Amino acid sequence: RAPLDRAFSFPVFWVGFPPGSDMSSVGQFLREKREARRMSVAEIARATRVPTSSVERIEADQFDELPAEV
Predict the structure, then answer these.
(1) pTM for this predicted structure
(2) Is the alpha carbon torsion for 26, 30, 33, 35 positive or negative?
(3) Do the Cβ atoms of 32 and 26 come closer than 8 Å?
(4) What is d(CA 53, CA 35) in angstroms, rounded to the nearest whole number?
(5) By CB atoms within 10 Å of each CB, which of 16, 45, 57, 60 scores lowest?
């Protein structure tokens, strides 16, 4: 499996979807990248230290359901 730093390889300054992409949401984009790397939600949660439930909400574009900022 690819290390997390290679799992999502796109420039940090990049905003929006890659040219030619037909993805309709941020969550869909992230889910497809994770699945392409054959990584589970639990693996992403461990590597990023983001709770599993938050990863699932992000992939479902349920941003209103995420915890408030600290």
Answers:
(1) 0.66
(2) negative
(3) no
(4) 17
(5) 16
Q: Alpha helix (H) ranges present in the chain?
A: 4-7, 26-36, 41-48, 52-59
Instruction: For residue 21, give every residue at least 6 positions away whose Cβ sits within 8 Å of its Cβ, in sequence order, or none.
Output: 29
Which pair of structure tokens corresponds to residue 57?
């909400």
The separation between CA 61 and the C-alpha centre of its own chain, rounded to angstroms, equals: 10
**Length of the chain measured in residues:** 70
Q: Residue 14 is encoded by which pair of tokens?
A: 């990049």
Q: Classify 48 as helix, strand or coil.
A: helix
**Residue 56: count of CB within 10 angstroms of its CB:** 16
Contact 30, 45 (CB under 8 A): no
Q: At a CB cut-off of 8 Å and minimum separation 6, what does 5 contact?
A: none
